[in-house]
Amino acid sequence: MTAEQNILLDPSIRDWVLLPLIMIVLFMGVLRHYVTILMNSPSKPNMARICNVNIQNYGRILLSSGAALSPESFKHRAERMLNGMLKKEVDPVNPMEMMNDPNVMMGLLKNQFMMMVPNIGMMMLVSYFFSGFVVAKFPFPLSHRFREMMQRGLEIDVLNCNYVTSLSLYFLIMSGNQGLLQLLLGEDVESENHSAMMMQQMPQASGQPVDFAKVFKQISDELAFVKDHHRWSYEKAPDVLLKNWRSQKRAKGMAVKRR
């Protein structure tokens, strides 16, 4: 095997394999993006869940930033939450709620469809029309471990590993075309393959049911404790302000005397 190999790319391979392969992959990415947008139906908002989330967020903000309020103001807000919003009845959590929701199941099926069908079609197209061509060469050497990755569809043991076949280039373009798609579409484009895989592995991650009864109970206990042990961060603010003002005034007076 020679130390260096120089293989010239046939202009016909460039015109009928390399450029069409790049254009087809980019076109399929753009088409998949817009078809995914068209197939995604907006989900109906759950008003009860939204209200519970707002109550939870308000309670957390009151606990974390309540030191900025005066004791009277904090106590008034805490009692209002304890006697009102945190005492509302909450429906018990149903673990099978998300699985029984037809919208969730339909969304999972759509994501799987948009991931599998185009990939299978593109794989068959590339394997049938563009398999067995050497289309590119990396400007740096690679070890023999990369042969299977860079030279799929071509079994020539004496060929250097930095030469890339059309089938391997297809996988490389598929895994790194998000930047080009973002430039073409002028917006943030997420990887549909990655999102579909995440939806398959964690179908309930985005809509995991929350036991708001336990959350409200925890916030109620924390508010009941903090209400009687509240410390106002600005309680000594007037004294500190006057002290700083006097020290600055004294420093200015001493500077005038020195002049």
Automatic annotation (TrEMBL):
Lineage of the species this protein comes from: Eukaryota, Discoba, Euglenozoa, Kinetoplastea, Metakinetoplastina
Transmembrane segments annotated in the record for this chain: 16-35, 113-136
The entry's keywords: Membrane, Transmembrane, Transmembrane helix
A single Gene Ontology CC term: EMC complex
Signal peptide limits: none
Keyword Transmembrane helix carried by entry: yes
Membrane topology: Multi-pass membrane protein
Protein name: ER membrane protein complex subunit 3
Localization of this protein: Membrane
PANTHER family given in the database record: ER MEMBRANE PROTEIN COMPLEX SUBUNIT 3
Cited SMART domains: DUF106
GO BP terms, alphabetized: protein folding in endoplasmic reticulum
Origin superkingdom: Eukaryota
InterPro entries for this protein: EMC3, EMC3/TMCO1
UniProt keyword annotation of Lipid metabolism present: no
